[in-house]
Design a protein that fits this description.
The chain has about 325 residues and is of the alpha/beta class. It is built from eleven helices and nine strands. The protein has a single domain, classed as NAD(P)-binding Rossmann-like Domain (Rossmann fold, 3-Layer(aba) Sandwich). The strands form two sheets. A seven-stranded parallel sheet has the order 3-2-1-4-6-7-9, sandwiched between helices.
Length: about 325
């Protein structure tokens, strides 16, 4: 690749990952209020706990009431502040009611649209209902959060930051995860455009792009066809080799401080392949395909790679 083209690509990376913030600090959050969806487990739980430790009042929202209450109880018992909410992000009216309640009680400084579900399987094995479910949760769940909170954040007239959880699968082509990747790529594009629109109003937007993280998302994902046979192996891979969700939470709050728009995390895992994709896409696709094939081999179950019938249940993070 010509040096000039490489320089342009690197400049694009920098412009997407390091822009001026709003003045909000992700380190000292005393006096701040945060809302986290999908906060009952995984990345959302880590976000809620870290926000509380750093001084924020945290509104812990999750579709599972028991999980939301458990995280809230853990925060309160540690001497911090939290309120539990049972919210299905697919329900626009419920998300709007959450926004009305929280903003009406004193405003919101940080919004984390984090709720999401996983999916793997060839497109030919994926029914339309899977596509719709993924769009409803992973994309429309974020849209509902934005629709409900952004007008209220603008009316507050003060700095705020929105973090939308996407994925490395939205940055790179991942065979076998096309529907999931579609929703996460949409979240990244939405976040970049919304940041450009809201930045003059001192409201920033980030797309959090985690790689392989040790959460429950693989175990609770829908797996179709041959991928269903690999679910146990993939779950073990994420549990034993995945990065802690606490690392992702810290990266999210660093993004608030520094005004990052696209947030690859952990950087050592996500940034190199993304950078390669920007600099030299053909090589990146070849490398990524090799990696995916390796994962398939590692996670293959004892029953082999023959397509399975049916799928596991879908559960939100």
């Amino acid at each position: 690749m010509p040096v000039a083209a490489a320089a342009v690509a690197l400049a694009g990376i920098r412009s997407r990952t390091a822009r001026a913030g709003t003045g909000l600090s992700g380190t000292d959050l005393h006096g701040r209020t945060a809302v986290v969806t999908g906060a009952g487990s995984g990345i959302g739980r880590s976000l809620a706990l870290l926000l509380a430790r750093r001084g924020a009042l945290v509104h812990v929202a999750d579709v599972d009431a028991g999980r939301a209450e458990a995280v809230t109880r853990q925060i309160v018992e540690a001497g911090a502040r939290a309120v539990a909410h049972t919210v299905d992000v697919c329900d626009a009216a419920a998300v709007d009611a959450l926004a009305e309640q929280v903003v009406g009680a004193g405003g919101v400084d940080l919004l984390f649209n984090n709720a999401g579900i996983g999916h793997a399987g060839a497109v030919a094995d994926t029914p339309l209902s899977d596509w719709q479910r993924l769009i409803d949760v992973n994309l429309m769940g974020v849209v509902h959060g934005i629709h409900a909170f952004v007008p209220r954040l603008l009316a507050q007239g003060r700095p705020a930051h929105i973090v939308n959880t996407a994925s490395v699968a939205g940055l790179l082509p991942v065979p076998g995860m096309v529907p999931y990747s579609t929703t996460k790529a949409a979240v990244i594009g939405l976040s970049e455009a919304l940041d450009a629109e809201l930045r003059p109003h001192r409201i920033r937007v980030s797309a959090l792009c985690p790689g392989v993280i040790a959460t429950d998302i693989v175990r609770t994902s829908t797996m179709r066809g041959a991928w269903q046979e690999r679910q146990a192996g993939a779950t073990e891979l994420y549990a034993t080799r995945g990065t802690s969700p606490d690392v992702v939470a810290r990266a999210a709050l660093d993004a608030v401080t520094h005004g990052q728009v696209v947030v690859p995390t952990p950087r050592h895992q996500v940034l190199p392949p993304w950078l390669l994709m920007r600099l030299y896409p053909p090589l990146a696709r070849a490398v990524n395909a090799t990696f995916v094939n390796r994962v398939r081999s590692v996670t293959a179950g004892a029953t082999g790679d023959a397509p399975g019938a049916g799928a596991q249940s879908v559960v939100k993070r």
